Amino acid sequence: MSSAAPLSLVKYETPVLLSEVLHKKALASKRPKANDGQPKPQSEDVLFSILPPREFEKDGQRWIQYPSSTPATRLDVIRLQEQLDTLLTERQARETGVCPIREELYGQVFDELIRQVTISCAERGLLLLRVRDEIRMTLDAYRSLYESSIAFGMRKALHAEQSHVELEARVRALEREKAELQQQVEDLTEECAQIEQDEMQRRQDEQRKHDEEVAFFRRTYETLTANLQTVVNPTKA
């Protein structure tokens, strides 16, 4: 329980001790009753049902403060507007966008207008109450939708960030694989070049050996042929 009554744009009566409320209830029970035996509805009762009294603690005692049942004058309305502008400035309420401070202050102004209307006509006050509650439910629905959208956006952002991290890891893995494959290509290219060089050297060696053998056999043939001619035709020798 707060130590003092909070500031509000709603006009309240002078605070009274909570113990005095029992006395007021006793007086209310003595009001004239309608034909059905129920107390006749009073604008004050409707007002208190719309704007419940607020309680606070001060100097070790419990106090209660009821909304004022005094009709508002034109000057009161002008002062209300001035107080609203002053509080909006002092509490640094944002002029646009979502602002809890601005929402709170305008809510208090609306409650004060309901109070003023209810005093003169309880039915109009109840109708304004329905309008206020409908507006609040609509705002709550939009707020819930906004929070859901924010949560959805955050989940999407986290998912995108996670996907981004996974893609970066995949890219790094592919780059490593690419480097390994490039190294394999270089190794195989070098191996192929070495094999070609060895094969060329082998063919050259075999060709040289073949040429030497052919030359040897040709010389041998020529020598044998000459020897044979000497044997067959000794006179020519």
TrEMBL record:
GO MF annotations in UniProt: dynein heavy chain binding
Membrane-spanning parts: none
GO terms for cellular component: axoneme; dynein complex
Organism superkingdom: Eukaryota
Coiled-coil region: 157-205
Alphabetical keyword list: Coiled coil, Dynein, Motor protein
Presence of the UniProt keyword Coiled coil in the record: yes
Family: Belongs to the inner dynein arm light chain family.
Protein name: Uncharacterized protein
Organism per entry: Porcisia hertigi
Lineage of producing organism: Eukaryota, Discoba, Euglenozoa, Kinetoplastea, Metakinetoplastina
